[in-house]
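Memo to structure team: turn this sequence into structure tokens by end of day. - J.P.
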Amino acid sequence: MSPKVFITGATGFIGGEVFYTISEAHPDWEITALVRSSDKGALLAAAFPKTRLVYGSLDDVDVIEQEAKGADLVLNCASSDHAPALSAIISGLTPHKGHLIHTSGTGLLLYDDITLDKVVQGTKLSSRVYTDTTDIAKILSFPVEAPHRPTDILTLDSHALGIRPAIICPPTIYGETRGPARGPSVQIPGLCRASLKQGQAIRVNEGLAYWSNVHVKDLGDLYLRLAEAALQEKDELFGNEAYYFAEDGEHIWKDVSKMVATEGKKLGAWETAEVKSLSVEEIDAVEPRGSYLIGTNSRSRAVRARELLGWKPTGPKLEETVGQTLKNEALKMNLKVGHAAKAAGD
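Reply from structure team:
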């Protein structure tokens, strides 16, 4: 009998890549996707006609619970923080003790900067690095006030109900998804947008902040490997400590801003390769939450994925993708840059 998989967020950035990756690898799996509209559903159906579609939002908890009841595995990729939808998934999985892979994020690790150290964004590089093995006790001890922590607790506590849960915690995600909807990620497109609005590459204060990073294709591969482990009943990889970080290196945000400056000058978006510093208040006015997204420290190491799943990232490095991301954001903003601007006489 074919495994039954229910996925939320299949038309989003992360969920779209996950949906594409598992659909390509396992056309024999019976995949059901929650979609909000017929337009979204048409995108999935055109790419993978065998996909079963159910319509609703994350607030349609009865629909979600019913689908989880019939699933061997639920991939929750729509929202890291929607507790009612997650609770509905858990209610549906509990009777048959299914597997759950929940999407969180290493924004969890911002708790140190924001609350403990009270660092002014963009002014201090942190030496604190978390692994998902030796530092698991510390990760599990973060209070409920930490980003994503309420739903992380809900996920891992479901193990006591017999569910086999795991959490995937991505850092900065870059690159273009192969999912049907092809939406953007958050941080680097946001930096590009803010820079284009300013007419010059920007950073938060000195740009001193670390984040780990991963290409979206490699992230999709991690979900695939963990999903396969779930359906092969490798239950030792799941449980109430099953956090999986996903990283293929790290960056300092001032360096990414410099990449944006260089690529923007090549593109003709601006004349200088210099970077302009903005205060916390200034960047948040241009890009909501921008000071947190590109001005705080979140350093993680994906030990579990490499050691337990044989995960080996192979995607392009972050610096190889910045130019295309900047071009994409300029197009979305209807900005004429480079040759197009010259042709138009701008």
